[in-house]
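Hi V.,

You were right to ask for the full record rather than a summary. Here it is.
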Amino acid sequence: MDDFAEFYLSGKDAVFRAVLAAGGDRAGAEDAVAEAYARACARWAAVRVHPNPTAWVLRTAFNVRRSVWRRLRREVLGDLPDRAAAETVRDGALRRELAALPRRQREVVALRLIADLSVAETAELLGIAEGTVTAHLHRAVQSLRHQLAPAGLTALNPTREVA
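Predicted structure:
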């Protein structure tokens, strides 16, 4: 079980940042990550031999968040909770623009740029083609550049290769 503790401590912050960036409030992201790691711990014998245990946890956390959103839509009439909690990320403008992206683009940005997964790992985790990953990432980065440039924010390096 010591190897699970090491796995948890080495990856929990990156997984949390990815889930938070993919959409949701801080508390919801914390809950999803905690649930994902709890499931990983319960199935550690199988998860530890997975080709990428961190990707397994990310996928589980994303699925937990989706389930929560579906449940909220059924239970609460009207608007969903504010997903642009600017205080949860250092740059409030960037956080708001990330929250405004379509769900799949947020997920790709979170996995590729925040969790630092490869295109292949991201595609496998989301169940989409690698070309779709690069297309979503390209559109997301272009949208963020367009929205943040007028504000004088240069958080996205235009010379960084995104594929």
